[in-house]
């Protein structure tokens, strides 16, 4: 066990950062990690159902990415919409922030927005004259490491095939590998967590426990709570799903339906209460998501598996390959 941020670092060649998705969703490579045996094997995601057992339940995050990236009409200001607080009221990240103090205005698609508040973390509260038409003025907010703007193909591929609840600024990337056909072959249920920009924020403090964790909204239905109660084993599809399940489990077991906000930070040491297996993509060095995965499978084994994935030329991050931990 380590609480030093430096112990969650690893060298990644830039050539392994996936800027575009594979031609077919289910053709991604899948490193299957057997955490108790301390071994792994190399497969394709289409083999995922082979690793499910009778009584398993796959739980997926059905959030939908909104067109949250905006530019002012004069192209001088960039906004990332984080959370809608009213019909025309948004919490935003703004670049450059120095130009956007309280009372400053910005025009997007002919609609004027005014800064009403500057939060302690630097986020802005912007009020627009009328609700924004994001379909007209917004872009999908691809992660910064892709170093490109969204293209037409991303409108489909940077969403899961089951995305339905709008509200995220990033995709729950483990779910991007599913096709409708493959999903139809496995027992599954949905919850919703709206992914925030904090998911990309690296841990910049020396000790893990000093990192201020971001907060995200979630909702879990009665139907999913009942399915969880019947499941013999819960397979979490992604770290976002894991955070919801484990956050709700701290309040009540068996899990009941409900909605709320979570800032749970899962890192070693941690005792998982609900999740028995985890499908996840390969995460950034020193990230809270890598720490969550390390809590689930053990830091040393996870870091060894990451180095194996690098040696084998796996593709990393949002559009990359995946790891199934059983």
Give your account of this protein's structure:
- The longest helix has 13 residues, at 239-251.
- The protein has two domains: 5-65 and 143-325, QueA-like, CATH 3.40.1780; 69-137, Thrombin, subunit H, CATH 2.40.10.240.
- 17% of the residues lie in helices and 28% in strands.
- The protein is of the alpha/beta class.
- The strands form three sheets. It has a nine-stranded mixed beta sheet, covered by helices on one side.
Secondary-structure topology with pairs:
Layout: E1 29-34, E2 39-44, E3 56-61, E4 63-65, E5 69-71, E6 78-86, E7 89-95, E8 105-108, E9 111-118, E10 124-128, H1 134-137, H2 154-157, E11 165-168, H3 180-183, E12 188-193, E13 216-220, H4 222-230, E14 233-237, H5 239-251, E15 258-262, E16 277-281, H6 288-297, H7 299-311, E17 322-325
Helix pairs in contact: 6-7
Structural class: alpha/beta
Low confidence ranges: none
Let me know the CATH homologous superfamily of the largest domain.
Answer: QueA-like
Measured by DSSP, the beta-strand proportion falls in 25-35%
The overall average pLDDT, rounded, is: 95
- How many strands, what sense, and barrel or not for the largest sheet? 9 strands, mixed
- Percent of residues in helices comes to 10-25%
State the end-to-end distance: 20 Å
What CATH architecture of the largest domain would you give? 3-Layer(aba) Sandwich
CATH topology of the largest domain: QueA-like
Which radius of gyration do the C-alpha atoms yield?
20 Å
Q: How many strand elements?
A: 17
* CATH class assignment of the largest domain: Alpha Beta
Write down the secondary-structure element order: EEEEEEEEEEHHEHEEHEHEEHHE
Main β-sheet, spatial strand arrangement: 2-1-17-16-14-3-12-13-15
The number of helical runs is: 7
Shape descriptor: globular
Q: How many distinct domains?
A: 2
């Amino acid at each position: 066990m380590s609480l030093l941020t430096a112990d969650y670092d690893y060298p990644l060649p830039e050539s392994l950062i996936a800027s575009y998705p594979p031609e077919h969703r289910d053709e991604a490579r899948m490193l299957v990690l057997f955490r108790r045996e301390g071994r792994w094997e190399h497969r394709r995601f289409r083999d995922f159902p082979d690793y499910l057992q009778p009584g398993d339940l796959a739980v997926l995050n059905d959030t939908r990415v909104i067109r949250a990236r905006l530019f002012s009409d004069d192209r001088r200001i960039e906004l990332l919409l984080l959370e809608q607080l009213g019909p025309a009221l948004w919490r935003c990240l703004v670049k450059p922030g120095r130009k956007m103090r309280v009372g400053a205005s910005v025009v997007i698609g002919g609609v004027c927005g005014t800064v009403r508040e500057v939060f302690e973390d630097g986020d802005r509260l912007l009020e627009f004259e009328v609700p924004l038409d994001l379909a007209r003025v917004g872009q999908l907010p691809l992660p910064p490491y892709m170093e490109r703007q969204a293209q037409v193909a991303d409108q489909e591929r940077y969403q899961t095939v089951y995305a339905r609840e709008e509200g995220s600024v990033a995709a729950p990337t483990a779910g991007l590998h599913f096709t409708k056909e493959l999903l139809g072959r496995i027992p599954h249920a949905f919850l919703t967590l709206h992914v925030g920009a904090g998911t990309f924020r690296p841990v910049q403090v020396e000790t893990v426990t000093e990192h201020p964790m971001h907060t995200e909204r979630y909702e879990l239905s009665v139907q999913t709570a009942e399915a969880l109660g019947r499941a013999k084993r819960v397979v979490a599809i992604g770290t976002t799903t894991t955070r919801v399940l484990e956050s709700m489990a701290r309040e009540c077991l068996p899990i009941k339906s409900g909605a709320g906000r979570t800032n749970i930070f899962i890192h070693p040491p941690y005792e998982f209460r609900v999740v028995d297996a985890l499908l996840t993509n390969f995460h950034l060095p020193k990230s809270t998501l890598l720490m969550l995965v390390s809590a689930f499978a053990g830091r040393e084994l996870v870091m060894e598996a990451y180095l194996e994935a690098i040696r084998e030329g796996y593709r990393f991050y949002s559009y990359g390959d995946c790891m199934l931990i059983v």
